[in-house]
Design goal:
about 325 residues, alpha+beta, single chain, Peroxisomal Thiolase, Chain A, domain 1, binds coenzyme A, 4-stranded mixed β-sheet, about 30% helix, 5-stranded mixed β-sheet
């Protein structure tokens, strides 16, 4: 997609947060019939962080991630104009972003939620860049946060092994076109396959006794793992190639491949299809599992902490998941 860019987008800082409690594959094998060996060989996941107890929520994780990013650049939260919370597990269906706005005291910011499951952070970042590039706002905080441990069926071994909780934040600011860091993007949705991965609202069997009204609730994540796998390894490389082609960037010029952290086999298959060396893959899913909208900013923040990424490195970022929705953004990193 071509954008009429009037200004550029700069990435000022990142931050992340995960719950304290770590749940190993061995511990999961005491809950459902599985083994460390099965989970590790099929997914690459060794453990994941889970939000236990009643005192912490997704908001706490998101707030910690946001404050870490703000502290890194000594920015006062009052400078933020817009907060986008990418999440599919809010603690309020009317929106959770406003709670973050209040907690970090971003009193000048408008705040809203964006729901796009595991692609949420990429969509949030691109949405933010549009507000920045057209001059509507100067500073945007994008947070990807999910607590899917609350939404998996802990007796379904095909899904409960995959997911973990976490949050990642990014502060973006408008800048001159010359300093632009988000070089381009490519986004897609195919709702025909929404049933492959969903968390559906389910109505009760009996209606209200007076009104013919069926109420219900959201139940558990349901997934066709094989179909999701096939979708990811076929569509993500295409999205990346389309995006690179639109920018006239050669795949060999890519320094880092930062994909949604779903499964190590998906990540290496995508790299193989693009002939990208596997040592260019940023991967931390062994420690955190699939943290949905949090996975990309969490992995990016960790890679930056580890000083893996150098000035002017080109990073391909791709998200994919429920919807089905998937997309790519190409970033030039600048310190
Ligand atoms: N432990 C042990 N056995 C398990 C298991 C588990 N946790 N989960 C499933 N199995 C069993 C199945 O029951 C099946 O047994 P059967 O052959 O006796 O019927 C067997 O293992 C194979 O199951 P299958 O679902 O075909 O495994 P798979 O090789 O497709 O691997 C996934 C399952 C989920 C790891 C894989 O499909 C996958 O990674 N898909 C992508 C999922 C994803 O990333 N989703 C999020 C995207 S955002």
């Amino acid at each position: 997609m071509k954008s009429l860019m009037m200004q550029g987008t700069q990435i000022l800082a990142t931050g992340s947060a995960v719950p304290d409690f770590s749940l190993s594959n061995e511990q999961i094998s005491q809950i459902v019939e599985t083994s460390n060996e099965w989970i590790l060989t099929r997914t690459g996941i060794k453990k994941r962080r889970i939000l236990t107890g009643t005192h912490q929520s997704i908001i706490d994780l998101a707030v910690v991630a946001a404050l870490k990013a703000l502290n890194k650049i000594a920015m006062d939260a009052s400078e933020i104009d817009l907060i986008i919370l990418a999440t599919s597990s809010p603690n309020d269906l009317f929106g959770s972003a406003s709670q973050i706005q209040a907690k970090i005291k971003a009193n000048n910011a408008v705040a809203f939620d964006l729901t796009a499951a595991c692609s949420g952070f990429v969509l949030g970042m691109i949405t933010a860049s549009q507000f920045l590039q057209n001059g509507s706002y100067k500073t945007v905080l994008v947070i990807g946060a999910d607590t899917l441990s609350k939404w998996v069926n802990w007796s379904d071994r095909s899904t409960c092994i995959l997911f973990g909780d976490g949050a990642g934040a990014m502060i973006l600011q408008s800048c001159s076109k010359l300093d632009n860091q988000i070089l381009g993007f490519q986004l897609n949705t195919d709702g025909n396959y929404c049933n492959h991965l969903s968390l559906l609202y389910e109505e009760e069997i009996n209606p209200h006794p007076i009104l013919n009204l069926y109420q219900g609730s959201f139940k558990y994540i349901s997934m066709n793992g094989k179909e999701v796998y096939k979708f990811a390894v076929s569509q993500v490389p295409l999205s990346i190639l389309k995006c690179l082609n639109s920018l006239n960037i050669d795949v060999n010029d890519i320094d880092w491949l930062l994909l949604h952290q779903a499964n190590d086999r998906i990540l290496t298959a995508v790299a193989d299809k693009l002939s990208i060396d596997t040592n260019k893959i940023i991967m931390n899913l062994n420690k955190y599992g699939n943290t949905s909208a949090a996975s990309i900013p969490l992995a990016l923040d960790e890679a930056l902490e580890q000083k893996k990424i150098s000035n002017n490195d080109l990073i391909v970022i791709s998200g994919f998941g429920a919807g089905l929705t998937w997309g790519t953004a190409i970033i030039k990193w600048k310190y």
